[in-house]
Amino acid sequence: MRNIKFTIEYDGTNYVGWQTQPTGPSIQHTLEQGLKQLLQEDVQLIGAGRTDSGVHARGQVANGKTRSGLQPEAIRKGLNALIPDDIVILAAEEVPDSFHARYSARERFYRYNLSLVPTALERRISWYVGGYMLDPEAMDACAAQIVGEHDFSSYCKSEYRGDNFLCTVKSSAWIREPSKLLFEISSNRFLHGMVRALVGTMVEVGRGHRPFEEFKGILEARDRRKAGMAAPARGLFLERVVY
Amino acid sequence: MRNIKFTIEYDGTNYVGWQTQPTGPSIQHTLEQGLKQLLQEDVQLIGAGRTDSGVHARGQVANGKTRSGLQPEAIRKGLNALIPDDIVILAAEEVPDSFHARYSARERFYRYNLSLVPTALERRISWYVGGYMLDPEAMDACAAQIVGEHDFSSYCKSEYRGDNFLCTVKSSAWIREPSKLLFEISSNRFLHGMVRALVGTMVEVGRGHRPFEEFKGILEARDRRKAGMAAPARGLFLERVVY
């Protein structure tokens, strides 16, 4: 069996997320169907990040094992021809058998696209925060505060059943653009719903609805009822995964 | 009557173009319907550029006259609440009665977004030119050649019924980005289909299908059969209009 690593871009608008669900089309299932058609074989894909419904990716990584002798570049082109145009395989390469897209990942990068003005062209890929004035310095302070190893229980969706809430955030910062604020975060791992809950809570601080001191207390509380509302899925991108 | 100037962003994917047509929804008609609902009055809009079906705008300008006493900012917000989210009114302001979005315009800026790699996220707003190697220097030479006043008959769609084909191109250049080529052009006026025919023909030169010398001859020929195929509408943006 050969192990193939795929790098994938997608517009998540019309999908229930990465992972196969009974409720609608997933990225994983769409790719597996394409691979079955191309290789006449069932290939099970493992994704680096289980992006939620509506979340996008510029560099999702997945791997799957195949008996096919087709060259990775031929698989890439063949698969792109068979899948809908809101998913694109950017790269395909053969990797050692031990490579596991999820467990081998050392660092994942996410970006959240916050629009400060209404936008028609980016309406599917950004969150327009409405007519609020945001205080970028308060938001910068929040972003800086979460760098390092912390228990992120407070920022985890309640349906998470694991018992390890520790994440080591390597970088976390707001980038200012003329009509946007981009939140960029990298970590060894992310909990379910973590980036969206962080962004939603930081926006509440930016709007002045919560003082920064309260934000500091949320992490320490380890209580999922303390964090703010989740920011909408459409502004979130899995940017890349480092191995 | 007050004269209101609107600056408009839109995703043209689902429209037959700026101008009202019997064949489907237009940007103009959608806005006029919104204004009628908001102001209880028929307002006729004049657009600066008659963008074709599928062409986008980041800064289309239109004006219309109203008896309403509503402040421009209230008209902007009210109209945004009534129109679909693929159109956004960025600004509304009162202008002198003599202001005419089309005739008063001194310079229009268009941009064409050419993708060098397949893209899921920008599939609606770019043209992926396929697996061709493009020669950016040959394309730069073409872009530079059209600066100045020229008769652009060769780059005008055959249904154009006017008799003035002279345009004064003020700037014309390709901007290189990591996985893109952006063509930026400004001119006092544009003929119907001109930017898309220019881009399509320059891409033929970039692919090596036409020598640069032939490109030079097309303008001089003043023959609409000489130019290359039109680039797809989805890559084209009306960026802004200067008065």
Describe this structure in words.
The structure is a homodimer of 243-residue chains. With 243 residues, chain A is an alpha+beta fold. In chain A, strand 2 (46-47) and strand 3 (56-66) form a beta hairpin. In chain A, strands 1, 2, 3, 4, 5, 6, 7, 8, 9 and 10 form a ten-stranded mixed beta sheet that branches. Chain A has helices at residues 27-39, 72-82, 136-145, 194-206, 212-221; strands at residues 2-10, 46-47, 56-66, 87-95, 107-115, 127-128, 148-151, 166-177, 180-187, 236-242. The first copy, chain A, has two domains: 2-95, Pseudouridine synthase I, catalytic domain, N-terminal subdomain (Alpha-Beta Plaits, 2-Layer Sandwich); 107-242, Pseudouridine synthase I, catalytic domain, C-terminal subdomain (Alpha-Beta Plaits, 2-Layer Sandwich). Chain A binds chain B through residues 9-11, 56, 58, 80, 85-88, 90, 117-121, 123, 125, and chain B through 9-11, 56, 58, 80, 85-88, 90, 117-121, 123, 125.
Write the layout of secondary structure elements.
Two copies of one chain form a homodimer.
Chain A: E1 2-10, H1 27-39, E2 46-47, E3 56-66, H2 72-82, E4 87-95, E5 107-115, E6 127-128, H3 136-145, E7 148-151, E8 166-177, E9 180-187, H4 194-206, H5 212-221, E10 236-242
Parallel strand pairs in A: 3-10, 5-6
Antiparallel strand pairs in A: 1-3, 1-4, 2-3, 5-9, 5-10, 7-8, 8-9
